[in-house]
Task: structure prediction
Amino acid sequence: MLDRELIRKQPDLVRQGIVRKKGDASLVDQFLSLDAEFRRLATETGNAQAESNAIAKSIGMLMGQKKFDEAEEAKAKASSLKGRVAELEAQEREAEAKLRTLELEFPNIPHESVPEGADENDNPVVRLHGEQAKFEFEPKPHWDIADQHKMIDLARGAKITGSGWVVYTGIGAKLQRALFNFMVDFQTEQNGYDEIYPPFVVNRESLIGTGNLPKFEDDLYKTQDDFFLIPTAEVPVTNLYRDEILEASQLPIRHAAFSGCFRREAGAAGKDTRGLLRIHQFDKVEMVKFVEPAAAYDELESMVVDAESILQALGLHYRVIELCTGDMGPKATKIYDVEVWAPGVGKYLEVSSVGNFGDYQSRRANIRYRPEAGAKPEFVHILNGSGVAVPRLMAALLETYQQADGSVQIPEVLRPYVGREKIG
RNA sequence: GGAGAGAUGGCGGAGUGGUCGAUCGCGCUUGUCUUGAAAACAAGAAGCCUGCAAGGGCUCAGGGGUUCGAAUCCCCUUCUCUCCUCCA
Result:
């Protein structure tokens, strides 16, 4: 959601932003005419209500002064106004509802620094860390390694639920548990985040707040109570402060949360779906920040570094890319992805997406703060990023640390969590 | 699942049909005092929409109704608490 004032005062700027994101710029004109209509009705309704209020008030005073005849006269007059007020109110409500629906369709405006581009092929690499691991043998993909050590069971996952649902077994289950425990500890103890353990099921309002609804309902699993399984902890954690006014002294708020994530992956059939690359349920540690507007872009940079720090601690090669305008989706103003190198599949895998959402989500979720005590509340700026997603991290880890004899070395920092130095 | 009680401003908590958008306390802001702070005293401030402004409108969980007029009466929904039931 955007500032209405911005759309009214600088429609060209908004149009340009939508065009940069390959969105539908006619939204602006639709908004402008609907907004004018709404405001016309609001003024007219307000005038009628003011008249009716004035008469009602005078009746109270006349009764107090025992002028009953005059009061009766006023009552008759007020009665005749009722129908008109009701009709105007109904029209105003309808116009406002339409406006609200339209408003939710607007994408966020990309930051001026975001590179132009059509799709993922236009995303520039911002930086590389380390280099691609060299092997004296043909490195295997993680699904072969996992199979060899009986770490995941895709066939039984398909049996008990369906394709794309994974059973972790034995050391596989332990390794994935080790990874998220390590990451939560790291983000809270080393990087200064406060831990949250949220519900994995949320209501509709929460998903509207983060911007997943109304647009992306098909991507979500839904319950019979009109609840939804969360696609990321971003949703419950961002909505922690929905409809609240925070004090400036509380900011910045930095949360890290472990959660399961559930995605229907409705449009993703067939692409990069082998092994752990794209599954319907996965675990992730998510970072969410609530900050003052002026601090948002600095906080974005440091959040990327926080995501990277996990990969560095695990000794993995990765690159950071910046998403171009055509690939960044509707919600953010600027996004970095962190992609870890997986030598077995020979690809960089996205394990983190870190974005600044500005006031886009805080407007939808009504999350404000007082810049100073006594001042008018303003919208906080919200950022979130993965820190990081478990399955692809595990894939990269297995592929990077595989040995010629088929065993897998466990990185130093993970050993206390796994309880051993190697697998196999 | 059953029975009962409740939902009011940043927080706590009054208010049962007519200047109530709301007494009061805490917290907050400003001023006096002080080297500064604390304390004390005084003054001030709810949110949202609309308007250049003056102003106007809406909001006492949400929605609907009664009435000239609703925080207050009626109906529905949601949520919270207590007891019972059930359960990890």
Residues 39, 42-43, 45-47, 49-50, 52-53, 55-61, 63-64, 71-72, 74-79, 81-82, 96, 244-245, 247, 370, 372-377 of chain A lie near RNA strand B (CB under 10 Å from a C1'). The domain at 4-103 of chain A is CATH 1.10.287.40 (Helix Hairpins). Chain A has a mean pLDDT of 91. Residues 105 and 237 of chain A are 23 Å apart (CA to CA).
